[in-house]
Hints:
By secondary structure, the chain is an alpha+beta fold. It has 7 helices and 12 strands.
Amino acid sequence: MPFEPLGYTFEVASPFPPENVKSSIRAGKKGWLDPKDGPRGWIIGPLMCLWMSAFDRYGPMIIAVVKKDGSGTRVVGRAGADLNGTAFFLLLAPLMALITWKMHQAGQGSTRSYVVIGAIFGLGLPLTLWLNSQDRKHAEPLVRFIRNTITPSARSRRTNLGSVTIDPIVRLSESGRERIGPVTAQDVYDTLQNAGVGDFVIISTAAETYLQTLLQNDGFVIERRDGDRMHHFKAVRRSGDIKVRDLFSFEETLAAMIAYGSGSVLPATIGWEPLELPE
């Protein structure tokens, strides 16, 4: 895995003009203080900054440029964990080193204070950079939001959700938080779109009857349970690269969850293997 403490680069192309793209993103994002997790932030001119939570401005974040590309638009930027905090730490380190050196030259401070400052930046900075590199994929929901907002295929898929009826007995939860009230196809879409790495999304018809997915760094894992632990299965791709046979894209996972919630036939590309659970 590459070392990318300042996030990974992403690029999303759209056939729509920049103003249309920016207006669609503005319309789709949440307000800054909306208590529910989801994309929020600002767009000023060609610059855009989005984050996920009203309470954690230093969590997953993207910083991007919205630029004209022929008759369309290209959104180019970086996505990662705590981009602003990491950048501030990187800028602060040489400044603190200079201040500490000046203090030493002036005979100020003590050996203990120098050791504390050295430990904070000598150990804290590498640890922070390593953690942020490991967690950079936590910003994937923000990139997914942009892709699903400005590309024609995603727009069409979202529009078609209005014609899908989810069974009234279905329940939907994300990492233990259950959505209150009747579930709609749009609810499934929104919950899955906002899922971060390590988040479980579960759509169920009973306590032990459900379809669940977990987002990992490179895709979604899907599982199904049809009652007791002896009927717990893991989804696998029927054909394709054996290395990613148990990982699915957002689109594939959404199709499976919508089909399950509406009582339709699950996608034919998905096969099922028994999952051995610990006693």
